[in-house]
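User: Hey, my collaborator sent me this sequence without any context and asked if I could get a structure. I don't really work with proteins. Can you help?
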Amino acid sequence: MTMIGLRFDLRVPPFARTSHAGQYAACLDQCAWADQAGVDVVVLSEHHGVEDGFMSSPVTLAAAIAGRTKRIPINIAAVLAPLHDPIRLAEQLATASLVSGGRVSLVAGLGYRAEEFEMARVDRKRRGTLLEESVRAMRQAWTGEPFEFGGRTVRVTPKPAVPPVVMIGGSTEKAARRAARLHCGFFPSIGDVKLKEAYEQECAAIGFGGGFVSLPGGPGFVHVSEDPERDWARIGEHALYDAQTYAAWQTPDQRSQVHVQGQTIADVRASGVYQVLTPDECVALAQREGRIILHPLMGGIPAALGWESIELFTKAVLPRLRPAA
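Assistant: No problem. I've predicted the 3D structure and written it out in C-alpha coordinate form, which is a compact way to encode the shape of the chain:
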Protein backbone atom coordinates (compact mmCIF):
# COMPACT_ATOMS: atom_id res chain seq x y z
CA MET A 1 0.00 0.00 0.00
CA THR A 2 1.26 3.49 -0.85
CA MET A 3 2.71 5.40 2.09
CA ILE A 4 1.24 8.91 2.27
CA GLY A 5 3.07 11.56 4.29
CA LEU A 6 2.35 15.16 5.19
CA ARG A 7 5.38 17.38 5.74
CA PHE A 8 5.84 20.82 7.33
CA ASP A 9 8.69 23.22 8.03
CA LEU A 10 6.54 26.38 8.01
CA ARG A 11 8.89 28.82 6.31
CA VAL A 12 7.58 32.24 5.32
CA PRO A 13 9.94 33.98 2.86
CA PRO A 14 9.88 37.77 2.48
CA PHE A 15 7.72 37.69 -0.68
CA ALA A 16 5.10 35.32 0.74
CA ARG A 17 1.53 36.53 1.07
CA THR A 18 0.93 34.88 4.40
CA SER A 19 2.09 35.01 8.03
CA HIS A 20 3.56 32.55 10.48
CA ALA A 21 0.39 32.69 12.56
CA GLY A 22 -1.64 31.82 9.48
CA GLN A 23 0.67 28.98 8.45
CA TYR A 24 0.71 27.40 11.90
CA ALA A 25 -3.09 27.53 12.08
CA ALA A 26 -3.31 25.98 8.60
CA CYS A 27 -0.82 23.28 9.61
CA LEU A 28 -3.01 22.19 12.52
CA ASP A 29 -6.12 22.18 10.32
CA GLN A 30 -4.34 20.15 7.65
CA CYS A 31 -3.12 17.65 10.25
CA ALA A 32 -6.71 17.22 11.42
CA TRP A 33 -7.65 16.48 7.79
CA ALA A 34 -4.80 13.97 7.51
CA ASP A 35 -5.91 12.22 10.68
CA GLN A 36 -9.42 11.74 9.29
CA ALA A 37 -8.25 10.87 5.77
CA GLY A 38 -5.96 8.03 6.80
CA VAL A 39 -2.64 9.70 5.96
CA ASP A 40 0.20 7.62 7.39
CA VAL A 41 2.46 10.16 9.05
CA VAL A 42 3.06 13.86 9.72
CA VAL A 43 6.74 14.84 9.44
CA LEU A 44 8.19 17.96 11.06
CA SER A 45 11.63 19.53 10.63
CA GLU A 46 13.90 21.73 12.75
CA HIS A 47 16.29 24.61 12.10
CA HIS A 48 17.24 27.69 14.10
CA GLY A 49 17.81 31.38 13.50
CA VAL A 50 16.60 31.32 9.89
CA GLU A 51 15.23 34.62 8.58
CA ASP A 52 12.14 32.97 7.12
CA GLY A 53 11.19 31.44 10.47
CA PHE A 54 11.93 27.81 9.65
CA MET A 55 10.31 25.79 12.43
CA SER A 56 12.52 25.90 15.54
CA SER A 57 10.35 24.06 18.11
CA PRO A 58 9.06 20.89 16.47
CA VAL A 59 8.42 19.07 19.76
CA THR A 60 6.06 21.86 20.80
CA LEU A 61 4.29 21.66 17.47
CA ALA A 62 4.14 17.85 17.70
CA ALA A 63 2.25 18.19 21.00
CA ALA A 64 -0.14 20.71 19.42
CA ILE A 65 -0.76 18.35 16.50
CA ALA A 66 -1.39 15.52 18.94
CA GLY A 67 -4.10 17.65 20.54
CA ARG A 68 -5.86 18.05 17.18
CA THR A 69 -5.58 14.40 16.10
CA LYS A 70 -6.36 10.94 17.40
CA ARG A 71 -4.37 8.35 15.44
CA ILE A 72 -1.79 9.72 13.02
CA PRO A 73 1.90 9.16 13.90
CA ILE A 74 4.04 12.30 14.24
CA ASN A 75 7.70 12.04 13.26
CA ILE A 76 10.27 14.78 13.90
CA ALA A 77 12.89 14.44 11.17
CA ALA A 78 15.14 15.57 12.44
CA VAL A 79 15.68 16.65 16.03
CA LEU A 80 19.10 18.32 15.95
CA ALA A 81 20.20 16.55 19.10
CA PRO A 82 23.62 18.22 19.68
CA LEU A 83 21.92 21.62 19.97
CA HIS A 84 19.75 20.56 22.92
CA ASP A 85 20.27 19.72 26.56
CA PRO A 86 19.57 15.96 26.54
CA ILE A 87 17.62 15.92 29.80
CA ARG A 88 15.38 18.82 28.87
CA LEU A 89 14.85 17.28 25.44
CA ALA A 90 13.93 13.97 27.09
CA GLU A 91 11.37 15.78 29.25
CA GLN A 92 9.80 17.54 26.28
CA LEU A 93 9.59 14.35 24.22
CA ALA A 94 8.18 12.42 27.18
CA THR A 95 5.42 15.00 27.49
CA ALA A 96 4.71 14.89 23.75
CA SER A 97 4.53 11.10 23.95
CA LEU A 98 2.07 11.25 26.84
CA VAL A 99 -0.09 13.85 25.09
CA SER A 100 -0.15 11.85 21.86
CA GLY A 101 -0.64 8.42 23.33
CA GLY A 102 2.77 7.28 22.12
CA ARG A 103 2.49 8.59 18.55
CA VAL A 104 5.68 10.70 18.51
CA SER A 105 8.96 9.41 17.06
CA LEU A 106 12.15 11.17 16.08
CA VAL A 107 15.16 11.05 13.83
CA ALA A 108 18.18 12.25 15.79
CA GLY A 109 20.32 14.34 13.47
CA LEU A 110 23.80 15.83 13.84
CA GLY A 111 22.95 19.24 12.40
CA TYR A 112 25.29 20.93 9.96
CA ARG A 113 24.70 24.70 9.78
CA ALA A 114 27.57 26.47 11.55
CA GLU A 115 25.26 29.34 12.53
CA GLU A 116 23.10 27.02 14.59
CA PHE A 117 26.03 25.67 16.58
CA GLU A 118 27.25 29.20 17.24
CA MET A 119 23.77 30.26 18.37
CA ALA A 120 23.56 27.28 20.76
CA ARG A 121 27.16 27.74 21.99
CA VAL A 122 27.99 24.17 20.98
CA ASP A 123 31.28 23.01 19.47
CA ARG A 124 30.37 21.65 16.04
CA LYS A 125 33.40 19.36 16.10
CA ARG A 126 31.84 17.44 19.01
CA ARG A 127 28.46 16.89 17.35
CA GLY A 128 28.93 13.14 16.85
CA THR A 129 29.84 12.58 20.48
CA LEU A 130 27.02 14.84 21.65
CA LEU A 131 24.44 13.02 19.52
CA GLU A 132 25.45 9.65 20.94
CA GLU A 133 25.38 11.00 24.50
CA SER A 134 21.96 12.49 23.89
CA VAL A 135 20.40 9.27 22.55
CA ARG A 136 21.78 7.21 25.42
CA ALA A 137 20.69 9.77 28.01
CA MET A 138 17.16 10.09 26.63
CA ARG A 139 16.62 6.35 26.62
CA GLN A 140 17.81 6.11 30.21
CA ALA A 141 15.72 9.12 31.20
CA TRP A 142 12.54 7.56 29.82
CA THR A 143 12.78 4.76 32.39
CA GLY A 144 11.75 7.34 35.00
CA GLU A 145 14.55 6.19 37.30
CA PRO A 146 17.42 8.35 38.64
CA PHE A 147 20.76 8.02 36.83
CA GLU A 148 24.11 9.74 36.61
CA PHE A 149 24.58 12.24 33.80
CA GLY A 150 27.26 14.89 33.49
CA GLY A 151 28.50 14.30 37.03
CA ARG A 152 25.10 14.70 38.66
CA THR A 153 22.06 12.62 39.46
CA VAL A 154 19.07 13.37 37.23
CA ARG A 155 15.56 12.01 36.87
CA VAL A 156 12.86 12.62 34.23
CA THR A 157 9.27 12.42 35.42
CA PRO A 158 6.66 11.61 34.44
CA LYS A 159 8.06 8.89 32.26
CA PRO A 160 6.35 8.25 28.92
CA ALA A 161 3.98 5.30 28.81
CA VAL A 162 5.43 4.60 25.35
CA PRO A 163 9.04 5.79 24.94
CA PRO A 164 9.52 7.56 21.59
CA VAL A 165 11.14 5.49 18.85
CA VAL A 166 14.56 7.00 18.06
CA MET A 167 16.11 6.68 14.61
CA ILE A 168 19.44 8.11 13.48
CA GLY A 169 19.77 10.35 10.45
CA GLY A 170 22.73 11.08 8.21
CA SER A 171 24.15 10.57 4.75
CA THR A 172 27.45 8.80 5.46
CA GLU A 173 28.55 5.26 6.26
CA LYS A 174 29.77 6.59 9.60
CA ALA A 175 26.19 7.62 10.39
CA ALA A 176 24.95 4.18 9.33
CA ARG A 177 27.39 2.47 11.68
CA ARG A 178 26.50 4.88 14.48
CA ALA A 179 22.81 4.00 14.12
CA ALA A 180 23.58 0.30 14.45
CA ARG A 181 25.91 0.85 17.38
CA LEU A 182 23.19 2.80 19.21
CA HIS A 183 20.65 0.03 18.46
CA CYS A 184 18.50 2.47 16.51
CA GLY A 185 16.79 2.36 13.16
CA PHE A 186 18.52 4.28 10.38
CA PHE A 187 16.79 7.07 8.46
CA PRO A 188 19.32 8.37 5.91
CA SER A 189 18.74 11.64 4.11
CA ILE A 190 19.55 10.13 0.73
CA GLY A 191 18.48 6.89 -0.93
CA ASP A 192 21.96 5.37 -1.23
CA VAL A 193 21.85 1.57 -0.98
CA LYS A 194 25.49 1.56 0.17
CA LEU A 195 24.31 3.21 3.39
CA LYS A 196 21.80 0.43 3.90
CA GLU A 197 24.51 -2.16 3.32
CA ALA A 198 26.87 -0.45 5.80
CA TYR A 199 24.12 -0.36 8.43
CA GLU A 200 23.21 -4.01 7.96
CA GLN A 201 26.86 -5.06 8.08
CA GLU A 202 27.39 -3.21 11.36
CA CYS A 203 24.19 -4.67 12.82
CA ALA A 204 25.45 -8.15 11.96
CA ALA A 205 28.89 -7.42 13.40
CA ILE A 206 27.53 -6.31 16.79
CA GLY A 207 24.65 -8.79 16.93
CA PHE A 208 21.83 -6.23 16.77
CA GLY A 209 18.80 -7.98 15.32
CA GLY A 210 16.18 -5.25 15.74
CA GLY A 211 17.41 -2.81 13.13
CA PHE A 212 15.67 -1.33 10.12
CA VAL A 213 16.44 1.19 7.39
CA SER A 214 14.04 3.65 5.77
CA LEU A 215 15.56 4.89 2.51
CA PRO A 216 13.94 8.02 1.05
CA GLY A 217 12.65 8.06 -2.50
CA GLY A 218 10.48 10.01 -4.88
CA PRO A 219 9.84 13.76 -4.92
CA GLY A 220 9.89 15.83 -1.75
CA PHE A 221 6.93 17.96 -2.84
CA VAL A 222 3.76 16.90 -4.63
CA HIS A 223 0.92 19.26 -5.49
CA VAL A 224 -2.18 17.87 -7.20
CA SER A 225 -3.83 20.09 -9.80
CA GLU A 226 -6.31 19.94 -12.65
CA ASP A 227 -4.07 22.47 -14.42
CA PRO A 228 -0.36 21.95 -13.60
CA GLU A 229 0.83 24.78 -15.88
CA ARG A 230 -1.43 27.25 -14.08
CA ASP A 231 -0.27 26.06 -10.68
CA TRP A 232 3.42 26.02 -11.58
CA ALA A 233 2.97 29.73 -12.26
CA ARG A 234 1.64 30.14 -8.71
CA ILE A 235 4.05 27.75 -6.99
CA GLY A 236 7.28 28.35 -8.92
CA GLU A 237 8.74 31.19 -6.86
CA HIS A 238 8.11 29.26 -3.65
CA ALA A 239 9.79 26.14 -5.01
CA LEU A 240 12.80 28.11 -6.30
CA TYR A 241 13.19 29.86 -2.94
CA ASP A 242 12.92 26.57 -1.06
CA ALA A 243 15.46 24.85 -3.30
CA GLN A 244 18.00 27.67 -3.39
CA THR A 245 18.03 28.41 0.33
CA TYR A 246 18.30 24.72 1.21
CA ALA A 247 21.12 24.24 -1.31
CA ALA A 248 22.97 27.20 0.18
CA TRP A 249 23.09 25.46 3.57
CA GLN A 250 24.68 22.24 2.33
CA THR A 251 28.20 21.40 3.45
CA PRO A 252 30.60 19.04 1.62
CA ASP A 253 29.78 16.18 4.04
CA GLN A 254 26.01 16.62 3.66
CA ARG A 255 23.93 14.78 1.04
CA SER A 256 20.18 14.98 0.65
CA GLN A 257 17.51 13.43 -1.54
CA VAL A 258 15.88 16.85 -1.97
CA HIS A 259 19.04 18.86 -2.75
CA VAL A 260 18.54 20.81 -5.98
CA GLN A 261 21.14 23.06 -7.62
CA GLY A 262 18.96 25.37 -9.68
CA GLN A 263 19.07 29.00 -10.81
CA THR A 264 15.61 29.21 -12.33
CA ILE A 265 12.11 27.85 -11.81
CA ALA A 266 12.68 25.74 -14.92
CA ASP A 267 15.74 24.16 -13.25
CA VAL A 268 13.76 23.32 -10.15
CA ARG A 269 10.90 21.92 -12.17
CA ALA A 270 13.25 19.75 -14.22
CA SER A 271 14.84 18.28 -11.09
CA GLY A 272 11.78 16.17 -10.31
CA VAL A 273 12.09 16.94 -6.59
CA TYR A 274 9.16 19.37 -6.85
CA GLN A 275 6.20 18.04 -8.84
CA VAL A 276 2.81 19.48 -9.78
CA LEU A 277 0.71 16.62 -11.10
CA THR A 278 -2.74 15.81 -12.37
CA PRO A 279 -4.67 13.23 -10.33
CA ASP A 280 -3.83 10.53 -12.89
CA GLU A 281 -0.14 11.44 -12.78
CA CYS A 282 -0.20 11.42 -8.98
CA VAL A 283 -1.71 7.93 -8.91
CA ALA A 284 0.94 6.74 -11.37
CA LEU A 285 3.70 8.24 -9.19
CA ALA A 286 2.28 6.55 -6.11
CA GLN A 287 2.20 3.19 -7.86
CA ARG A 288 5.74 3.63 -9.13
CA GLU A 289 7.39 4.97 -5.97
CA GLY A 290 5.20 3.46 -3.26
CA ARG A 291 4.96 6.82 -1.49
CA ILE A 292 3.56 10.32 -1.82
CA ILE A 293 4.83 13.29 0.20
CA LEU A 294 2.46 16.24 0.42
CA HIS A 295 4.06 19.52 1.53
CA PRO A 296 1.07 21.85 1.22
CA LEU A 297 2.65 24.97 2.79
CA MET A 298 6.08 24.57 1.16
CA GLY A 299 8.10 27.78 0.92
CA GLY A 300 5.25 29.93 2.23
CA ILE A 301 2.60 28.73 -0.23
CA PRO A 302 -0.70 30.38 0.73
CA ALA A 303 -2.87 28.02 2.75
CA ALA A 304 -5.73 28.36 0.26
CA LEU A 305 -3.52 27.01 -2.54
CA GLY A 306 -2.33 24.15 -0.35
CA TRP A 307 -5.95 23.31 0.44
CA GLU A 308 -6.78 23.19 -3.28
CA SER A 309 -4.26 20.39 -3.69
CA ILE A 310 -5.46 18.56 -0.58
CA GLU A 311 -9.11 18.72 -1.63
CA LEU A 312 -8.36 17.41 -5.12
CA PHE A 313 -6.10 14.71 -3.66
CA THR A 314 -8.93 13.67 -1.33
CA LYS A 315 -11.49 13.55 -4.15
CA ALA A 316 -9.53 12.17 -7.10
CA VAL A 317 -6.40 10.40 -5.80
CA LEU A 318 -6.95 8.99 -2.33
CA PRO A 319 -9.91 6.75 -3.25
CA ARG A 320 -7.73 5.10 -5.91
CA LEU A 321 -4.88 4.51 -3.46
CA ARG A 322 -7.07 3.44 -0.53
CA PRO A 323 -10.22 1.84 -1.97
CA ALA A 324 -13.10 1.57 0.48
CA ALA A 325 -13.44 -1.90 2.02
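In plain terms: The chain has a mean pLDDT of 95. You can pass these C-alpha coordinates on to your collaborator as they are.
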